[in-house]
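Q: I'm writing a short explainer about Addiction module component for a general audience and would like to include a description of its predicted shape. Could you first generate the structure from this sequence?
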Amino acid sequence: MNIQQLQNDKLNIINWISQLQDYSLIEKVKSIMSSPEACLLSNEQKNAIDEALQSIETKGTTPHNIVMEETKKRFPHLFNQ
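A: Of course. Here's the predicted structure. Afterward I'll give you a sentence or two in plain language.
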């Protein structure tokens, strides 16, 4: 998701919430907002991020153009449209 799409989604959600008439839905949104778990990563997610960062440190990264070349070779049908 790009930044523009994220901004559009947030504005759509704000607009939708501003038009709500159902108090129970507003209470649910408030509950989500106040939940500390709403913004926290699970241990599994944290471990995956740590492993990825460790891999980058030890093995480095692959340049975008090389990844694209390999992808085109493996999935040419996705690029010949």
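A: For your explainer, you could say: The mean pLDDT is 90.
Q: Perfect, that's easy to follow.
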